[in-house]
Amino acid sequence: xxxxxxxxxxxxxxxxxxxxxxxxxxxxxxxxxxxxxxxxxxxxxxxxxxxxxxxxxxxxxxxxxxxxxxxxxxxxxxxxxxxxxxxxxxxxxxxxxxxxxxxxxxxxxxxxxxxxxxxxxxxxxxxxxxxxxxxxxxxxxxxxxxxxxxxxxxxxxxxxxxxxxxxxxxxxxxxxxxxxxxxxxxxxxxxxxxxxxxxxxxxxxxxxxxxxxxxxxxxxxxxxxxxxxxxxxxxxxxxxxxxxxxxxxxxxxxxxxxxxxxxxxxxxxxxxxxxxxxxxxxxxxxxxxxxxxxxxxxxxxxxxxxxxxxxxxxxxxxxxxxxxxxxxxxxxxxxxxxxxxxxxxxxxxxxxxxxxxxxxxxxxxxxxxxx
Length: 371
Ligand SMILES: [Zn+2]
Known about the structure:
binds zinc ion, single chain, alpha/beta, 3-stranded mixed sheet
């Protein structure tokens, strides 16, 4: 009797064990890309900048004492931690962070423009695109790394999803209208795909007015993206934030720091959500970067472009299980914005050369390709 029971008792284990192992092995890699528009490396790595904030008139600070109490500390490491505590305490140690010139690390753009559209096309196509010379709403003919990923992996449209504050991401995300799922500007989620939370966010975002038309506030972009992540678990999620650029152009340095602090809160919620989902936990790389730098003087920190020194300097963080836990990298070779697309593919276990022979390589060693 006992001898007869044992095999039957083991049977479920014998059936389940190999399939559970197989499911574990096959659990696909995922990538979440987040861009923070026009965030200077000086602020990202150094926090509150004493050069920019030397005068109230050129920095636009409303309450100096309050701002100093909130963000001023004696060292750069403490200052940046005051602005983005979750990033520096919890994310940076789990990956690599490049672009701090003070430590001899440089990340630069290869397009000659230093403004948004050329930067986003360089990020998404792995090279500077000579036909991208304005911020106009234009759909370009270059396949993006997002479209390629969907094509290569045979994914449904909602599995490669873009949430952008700026409406231009409707065009910039893909070379074809149906290339990937895009929700940008004040878009709502199509009825068949929307959850009650997404419908509510679509109503509220239209009442919360950003400084200018054409972009919604990042709080709504982030909340929509998180709702999508929980509902559809996309293989690749791209969240394109915008508040920091609008506030810098408006010469409000205090609010730029506040916006970065709020974005740090979003990164916390994003990472915590991803870690809570079995599809993402231990399989997900978070890439965080920016489209361009800005000026470095009190007069021109608000601006960026070809004629504004500092605009070409950016930064890049790659965080996740396939990346060495090095934190801030010192004295590395110069990295370019064009390397980001190949890095994204490497983190998915894909090879940039199989996509596009003219796209730049992945950042060396940023993501191991073997399981
Ligand atoms: Zn920009």
